[in-house]
Amino acid sequence: xxxxxxxxxxxxxxxxxxxxxxxxxxxxxxxxxxxxxxxxxxxxxxxxxxxxxxxxxxxxxxxxxxxxxxxxxxxxxxxxxxxxxxxxxxxxxxxxxxxxxxxxxxxxxxxxxxxxxxxxxxxxxxxxxxxxxxxxxxxxxxxxxxxxxxxxxxxxxxxxxxxxxxxxxxxxxxxxxxxxxxxxxxxxxxxxxxxxxxxxxxxxxxxxxxxxxxxxxxxxxxxxxxxxxxxxxxxxxxxxxxxxxxxxxxx
Length: 251
Fold this sequence. Notes:
Elements: H1 23-26, E1 30-36, E2 54-55, E3 58-59, H2 60-71, E4 75-81, H3 86-95, E5 102-106, H4 111-119, E6 126-132, H5 140-153, E7 155-161, E8 166-170, E9 173-177, E10 183-185, E11 189-192, H6 193-199, H7 211-216, E12 224-226, H8 237-250
Parallel strand pairs: 1-4, 1-6, 4-5, 7-12
Antiparallel strand pairs: 2-3, 6-11, 7-10, 7-11, 8-9
Helix pairs in contact: 2-5
């Protein structure tokens, strides 16, 4: 996985071109987790939004928030979700008081706008984690890895290898592609606040598929770290079954 690690680009005139491991970036910083929970239950064939479906007796979103709350005692959590789901979130937080104070923020029209709304809660120098609310199995170890790599490199994007063969479709034609050239992206995508805040001042572009693509638009190259196979995203009913099995194995 080391072959996937890349440094921030050395772009003349860019204030972050000299980012490198050193005492300035190894200092302890505020930690803010922006957990984006904007999904519905459509693909899950359920009227309840997927982030509030039950997993091992607790809502999926609870597991995601608890992972960050348990990773660092000073972790601040910002929960971004549609206003229509605020009631679900209030019930969750009242039922499980093990989660510290959470700031709830209204989501936007797209993921970009939702994250942008969450970033308004970031002040001062911080390490900012942006995580999918429906990735409930993120580990403390991965959160620590992303934090430490971000202190050294300015960003940390967890990735895993592709296992299946893939093909590129061009019109009516298709061709095999070397899967070793590609990685599967996970969250938490993690950045120094000095990197991600200016990036989200950019105008929205439909090509912004995640936070890394937004930061790259400013000329930065993001730093990849090893993700985890268990850090799955809950999008379909089978994913919930797999997640429940993985939770049992981990206990």
